[in-house]
Write a structure and sequence with these properties.
- The protein is 35% helix and 13% strand.
- With 312 residues, the protein is of the alpha/beta class.
- It has a single domain, classed as Alpha-Beta Barrel (TIM Barrel), CATH 3.20.20.
- The strands form three sheets. A six-stranded parallel β-sheet has the order 6-7-8-9-10-11. A three-stranded parallel β-sheet has the order 3-4-5.
- Helix 1 crosses helix 2 and helix 3 packs parallel to helix 4.
- The chain is globular.
- The structure holds zinc ion (ZN).
- The site of zinc ion (ZN) has 5 residues, from loops.
């Protein structure tokens, strides 16, 4: 089993300390959302990746999809020059993060299946024909709206199909975990095993009974409100981690920072990506968590889920 990074395939054990949902590059685009994040300060991003690496960070999972500002060439360059493993994706984000004519939104379900599988097998389209070599995605990123009814069901089905055919993990943006019961049922009804789905931003809906039920079914749960005061992480996130680990469900948790906007990075005065190894890991250690659990929720769990059959 191997994990596909932007610089090649690696063993799952080599992923190490990993921010399970982040953004390392977002090209500015003309999109409807006024709050659409942009992240394009090449040298500053590289410098901060070096700090992340020095602090013990090993890998980053980039969640910006094609046509929404992804640049596989930049990700490749940033990884090569920082020594941080980067895993890129194919897939789709919320509609509001795309220019009006973005191709993914013109596709039928069948066309979308072909498109996703083509990227997984033949590489990120913006990197094809590179002298440096083609960059491949390591997972499928998708996004759902507040309800299943408002979500692009044909694209969700396409992602499920692509995952079934390739084994790739799906990381799914949720709107604060809303309607996740109906959305996960829609997906598993189409044959996807819960371990192929990572539910993002679930800590924004701190319903412990729901989290435990989802984890027991086998879904991965991603938490990332560490530095988002409006979600009251002291009251919610940190207690969720404690309760989930105590319930023996540590292997379903994936921690992340999701610093999608440049303003959240240290180079523009934000908390910065090195907060993951420096602040989050340190606090878990101080709180007395077992090393085994810390390694699982800060890298081991996402590594196991990203690993698929070796292509060679
Ligand atoms: Zn994100």
């Amino acid at each position: 089993m191997k994990i596909q990074t932007v610089t090649g395939q690696i063993d799952p054990d080599d992923l190490g300390l990993t921010d399970g949902h982040n953004h390392l590059w977002i090209t500015k685009q003309a999109v409807p959302a006024p709050d659409a994040p942009v992240l394009d300060q090449t040298e500053e991003i590289l410098a901060e990746l070096h700090i992340y690496r020095q602090a013990g960070g090993c890998s980053q999972i980039d969640c910006q999809p094609v046509y929404a500002g992804r640049d596989g060439n930049k990700l490749h360059w940033l990884s090569e020059n920082s020594g941080v493993n980067v895993v890129a994706n194919t897939g789709f984000h919320l509609r509001r993060y795309y220019p009006a004519e973005a191709p993914i939104w013109q596709m039928s379900g069948e066309q979308a299946v072909d498109f996703l599988i083509d990227e997984i097998k033949n590489g990120l389209q913006e990197t094809r024909g590179n002298v440096d070599g083609v960059v491949f995605p390591g997972f499928i990123k998708i996004a759902v709206e507040k309800t299943l009814a408002e979500s692009p069901q044909h694209l969700i089905e396409a992602a499920v199909q692509a995952s079934l055919e390739t084994g790739c993990l799906i990381e799914m943006h949720t709107e604060r975990g809303q309607d996740v019961e109906a959305i996960t049922a829609f997906i598993t009804d189409r044959g996807l095993s819960p371990d192929r789905l990572l539910l993002c931003h679930l800590d924004k809906r701190p319903d412990l009974a729901l989290h435990q039920a989802l984890a027991k079914e086998g879904f991965g749960l991603e938490y990332d409100t560490f530095f988002r005061e409006k979600y009251q992480p002291e009251k919610n996130l940190w207690l969720l981690i404690e309760a989930m680990v105590e319930a023996g469900l540590a292997e379903n948790l994936v921690l992340a920072t999701d610093l999608a906007d440049a303003s959240l990075w240290a180079f523009s005065g934000g908390i910065g990506i090195a907060s993951f190894p420096k602040m989050i890991k340190t606090r878990l250690e101080m709180a007395g968590y077992e090393q085994e659990d810390i390694q699982a929720i800060m890298g081991g769990n996402i590594a196991r889920r990203l690993a698929i059959e070796d292509k060679e």
